[in-house]
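Example record used in the benchmark description.
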Amino acid sequence: MLKSKHIDKICIAAMAAAILLTTAMLFGESLGIRRASAEPEYADRLLDGSRVHQIDIQIEDWEAFLKEAEKEEYAVCSAVIDGERFRQIGIRTKGNNSLHLTKEYGAARYSLKLEFDHYVDGGNYHGLDKLSLDASFQDNSYMKTFLTYDMMAFMGVPTPLCSYTWVRVNGEDWGLFLAVEEPEEAFARRNFGRNHGQLYKPDYLSLDDENSDVALRYTGSDPDRYENIFRNAKFEIDAGDKRRVIDALRKLSEKEDLESCLDVDEILRYFTVQVFVMNWDSYLGYTGHNYYLYEEGGKLSILPWDYNLAFGTYSLGMPEPEEDSEVLINYPIDTPAPGSVMTERPLYHHLMEQEEYFSRYHRYFEQLIEDYFESGRFEKKLEETVEMISPYVKADPTAFCSQEDFYLAADTLRQVCLLRAQSVRKQLGGILPSTFAEQEEFSGNYVDASSVDLYDLGTFEDLESAPKLSEVFS
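Model output (structure tokens):
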């Protein structure tokens, strides 16, 4: 028999602890406490990237829907996903140049969005509210986005989940697509918890406009000056949300205590991968878009999106569009865009002006090169992916390329990444120049990329031989 004059106090304390533990288990997420295993159910289902999944979209008059693709209007559909039926789903086409060019060439293959809560309040796929089906436009390897997201996740950047999916429409094979978790409510909760911050997708209405807000430049305190950010908010926002973003941009412009307005570490990790994959259809390119902006507690971070034109295959806005694979493979990591662009991108430029952050950026590059590429992780991932999807590429009835083109593109992507890793390693070691200015003075030998033809990764010309909408429905 337990004897103690403190027994009552001990029992009361134990009961209180039990109550607190139970409360934390039941309501912890609403209190901002993340569970040890915070992955939602959909992460282990459709968005498990270790296998090819199945989606059968069921929609009335599919041909008419595709003929109106450029309108990007939602229609209602059902979908059988890995054997489970989901009804009243919103479906629309997606894309920018990819959508318009697919339409222009009369091709049948469009990227799509499936929105589970578009018609039904609270509709979801095991917790997922929205996903994209990426058509791999200008990507004969089918792997540019898949591998870039793998690099981003490896470097600790909050990244959309993705998986390969064999799509059928009304029971007929349609092709191999990449299912991608859309950065909306489910994504935010998965990465930042129930009490997450605000999420934006800054984008221009017209590329001819100044679009300073897309470039994250501070132009004053008036919220109307940042319409390209705020009209693309993923959640309902108020004046306080706008004020926090604008104040963060002001501090960034003034280089005032950057740690108070930026998640510096996350941003440096993001730019490490972004620069490695040579993606100029992005914040570091002429357009300045294709990223998500996350704000919480007055701090901004940048999140990855859209990599079908990465690995040197996008040239809009570059000086005399660069097509030399050796120049691109050896592109400088410290000035990853021309000066006219770089100085207008404060989220990168102002950070790199700080020696502490510049050194950390280089350390993250060391980590990426050593632990992802030199360790063999990259080649293993690529080989496993090729083996997994090659039968589906062969059977793809709407593909932009043949299976032989796919194998060539996959090998080209392997070469591009391994040669790029060699160049980055030498740039970090001072053997190769890491800025445009240094390259102008350099007379030595760069990493030899003469065997690489970047056009093998996919070009607009592939649309000429792609299955046409008129042929598919003839």
